């Protein structure tokens, strides 16, 4: 019985659905809002996600391309909040 309880505890550690990035978007959309605002930077990060994913998906697995896109989008969001969008 203890083994079953331990197994159930381990199962709870793994999510059934992957954690999605708030910037995860597979299509380019216009960034709205004033430059440097969270709204603008979210759109900027979503576009970064889409373009990075598209760049890497043909050469690598979708999972790797998605991970790289998430990292790029998060960095783009932080960069954008400081006023840098290049």
Written description of the protein model:
The protein is mainly alpha-helical and 86 residues long. The protein has a domain at 36-86. 58% of the residues lie in helices and 0% in strands. The radius of gyration is 17 Å and the shape is elongated.
SSE layout and pairing:
Blueprint: H1 2-11, H2 38-57, H3 62-81
Helix pairs in contact: 2-3
Radius of gyration: 17 Å
Tell me, briefly, the overall form: elongated
N-to-C span: 58 Å
**Fraction of helical residues:** 55-70%
Biggest sheet architecture: none
Judged by helices, strands and strand pairing, the structural class is: mainly alpha
List the total number of helices.
3
| Total E-strand runs | 0
Output mean pLDDT: 78
N-to-C SSE string, H for helix and E for strand: HHH
Strand residues, percent: under 5%
Which descriptors apply to this entry?
single chain; 86 residues; mainly alpha; 58% helix; elongated
Briefly say what this structure is.
Helices cover 58% and strands 0% of the residues. It has 86 residues and is mostly helical.
